[in-house]
Design goal:
- The chain has 72 residues and is an all-alpha fold.
- The chain is built from two helices and no strands.
- Helix 1 runs antiparallel to helix 2.
- The protein is rod-shaped, with a radius of gyration of 17 Å.
Length: 72
């Protein structure tokens, strides 16, 4: 797991909490901000997933192995 995956996951959780607080307090603004933060987290985690897959493929190539498509 790399830093983008960790930060992305953290943003997703923080956004979910923020949206929940907005829902509980009736704040449309907080719900929207929470949804945006969740989306940012999803994108950042996806970027981390791509980077990790690229690193794994590079490691496999360096070791002369054929990359496995099912590795994350």
């Amino acid at each position: 797991m790399n830093k983008d995956q960790l930060k992305g996951s953290a943003k997703q959780v923080a956004g979910k909490v923020q949206s929940g607080v907005g829902k509980a307090t009736g704040s449309v603004e907080q719900r929207a901000k929470g949804a945006l933060r969740q989306a940012e987290g999803t994108a950042q985690k996806a970027l981390g997933d791509v980077r990790e897959a690229a690193d794994d493929a590079a490691d496999d190539a360096d070791e002369g192995r054929t990359p496995r498509p099912d590795r994350h």
